[in-house]
Amino acid sequence: MLSFGLHGQDPTVLFMKLVKKFQAVKSYEVQATIKPNIPLIRILPVKAKVSFSYPNNFQIHAAGISILPKNGFSELPKLFGQAEKFTAISTGNENLQNQDTEIITLLPLDNEGDLVLAKLWVDVSRLLILKSQVSTRTNGTLVSEYFYGTSASKGLPDRMLVTVEVKKFKMPKGIATDINRNSQPEDAKKAQKKGTIEVLFSHYEIH
Fold first, then answer.
1. For the chain, which ranges sit under pLDDT 50?
2. Fold type of domain 11-206
3. What does the buried/exposed string (b/e) look like for 44-66 if buried means 16 or more CB atoms within 10 Å of the residue's CB?
4. 25-53, pLDDT tens digit by residue?
5. Which of 67, 73, 109, 183 is the most exposed place for a label (fewest CB within 10 A)?
């Protein structure tokens, strides 16, 4: 069930326009460079190939250890593929990337599921999501910012910046072991609760 908002464009209409744009891309492949900046670990940028097929099948093939959160890719398609399972409300406006955006919040009808809520910052003029905030019970809050270039008409970003909660972020086993061995003072560890992962995309092959 999707409800009317009190500000800006009707969130039902806006969300369904995003759904329609997403559904227009049935599959794609793209080259990616993953650049993690996670406190307490050191890892070099990794080259990867990302494949998507509708509605939410993502595969990431990396040349080395990749710590990219898969749900950073899959959460939005899950929302778009199950629009009837959310209530959409308008929750304000914000200027991002020198663009005015409307914020819509999606509340799941199933209060017992893993997803708690999702917020989307939408550039209405171009029908692009510039930022998303997805909160789940298992992975905490994942904030992603999207920057667009040549594939903007398809809603596909050239750059993505993901902010993660280090405590809840699931690391590969080898990396997690390195963190546990780290001898930094406890105060320093507490001060670094968030990390970022930058992903650069190039050479989209859209089908």
1. 1-7, 176-183, 187, 191
2. outer membrane lipoprotein receptor (LolB), chain A (2.50.20)
3. eebebebebebebeeeeeeeeeb
4. 999 999 999 998 888 777 788 899 999 99
5. 183
Amino acid at 3: S
Residue with tokens 């304000």: 92
Q: Which of 205, 201, 202, 206 is nearest to 68 (CA)?
A: 201
Strand order in the sheet with 128-136: 57-62, 46-53, 27-37, 194-206, 159-165, 140-147, 128-136, 115-123, 99-108, 86-96
Q: What is the pLDDT of residues 84-95, one digit of tens each?
A: 889 999 999 999
**Which positions ≥6 away from 1 have C-beta within 8 Å?**
84, 87, 109
DSSP alpha helices (H): ranges in 24-121? 71-81
Beta strand pairing status for 115-123 and 86-96? unpaired
